[in-house]
Amino acid sequence: NAGVTQTPKFQVLKTGQSMTLQCAQDMNHEYMSWYRQDPGMGLRLIHYSVGAGITDQGEVPNGYNVSRSTTEDFPLRLLSAAPSQTSVYFCASSYSISSSSPLHFGNGTRLTVT
Amino acid sequence: AQRVTQPEKLLSVFKGAPVELKCNYSYSGSPELFWYVQYSRQRLQLLLRHISRESIKGFTADLNKGETSFHLKKPFAQEEDSAMYYCALRGGWDRGSTLGRLYFGRGTQLTVWP
């Protein structure tokens, strides 16, 4: 039982490049989400999903796409990287969206856009 | 609108001293409140939630609806408590809420000196 696995751990991109941050969980969690963590800003929700085939926007969705074709995977795509997207990205999942279901976080991906 | 405010970006105490990390929230309904912790080089994890009324690692937090606060307290801080602490609020299925998403504060970096 690996929990929430994020890859890669580190990534450097040039402005305009695209890439996909991978997130997988093996806990059969329905709810998955992506956050970005910036100094002094806390964690801000980018996109989330309440089940396979269902995604929705969070607080800061611009410049990112997601899909949820399976329960296990929730990749985050950067369409055309910008320096403002330099951040640490966390994937998190929970069994459900109820309050009794805590979020389980991945180890994060540190992305630098030059 | 839901908002979580952690007024202290940094907090330092000496080992054995009491510590209180402040969290205030703004929410029109009945919130679910949580404290998450991120130790150095570890993933973000749930510390405690108000509905459980539990004490974890000596920490407690009481929801004060009159003051709209959920401060985290520990009577005797330990060096291993040094970490980043995030207060988070989960809304319900009411207006303006996004399917029970979690709203995070900006975090408080706690340092416990020996």
Q: What structural keywords apply?
A:
heterodimer, A: 114 residues, mainly beta, seven-stranded mixed β-sheet, four-stranded antiparallel β-sheet, B: 114 residues, six-stranded mixed β-sheet, three-stranded antiparallel β-sheet, 0% helix, 42% strand, globular
Task: Kindly describe this structure.
- The complex is a heterodimer of chains A (114) and B (114).
- Chain A has 114 residues and is mainly beta.
- In chain A, the strands form 2 sheets. In chain A, strands 2, 4, 5, 6, 9, 10 and 11 form a 7-stranded mixed β-sheet that branches. A 4-stranded antiparallel β-sheet of chain A has the order 1-3-8-7, with no helix packed on it.
- The termini of chain B are far apart.
- Chain B is globular, with a radius of gyration of 14 Å.
- In chain B, a hairpin with a 6-residue loop joins strand 5 and strand 6.
- Chain B has no helices and 11 strands.
- At the A-B interface, strand 5 of A face strand 5 and strand 6 of B.
* Count of helical stretches of chain B: 0
- How far apart lie the N and C ends of chain B? 41 Å
Radius of gyration of chain A: 13 Å
Rg on CA atoms of chain B, Å: 14 Å
**Into which percentage range does the β-strand content of chain A fall?**
over 45%
Low-confidence stretches of chain B: none
* Sheet of most strands of chain B: 6 strands, mixed
Number of β-strand runs of chain A: 11
Fold blueprint:
The complex is a heterodimer of chains A (114) and B (114).
Chain A: E1 4-7, E2 10-13, E3 19-25, E4 31-38, E5 42-51, E6 54-57, E7 64-66, E8 76-78, E9 87-94, E10 104-105, E11 109-113
Parallel strand pairs in A: 2-11
Antiparallel strand pairs in A: 1-3, 3-8, 4-5, 4-9, 5-6, 7-8, 9-10, 9-11
Chain B: E1 3-5, E2 10-14, E3 19-21, E4 24-26, E5 32-38, E6 45-49, E7 60-61, E8 72-74, E9 83-90, E10 102-104, E11 108-113
Parallel strand pairs in B: 2-11
Antiparallel strand pairs in B: 1-4, 3-8, 5-6, 5-9, 7-8, 9-10, 9-11
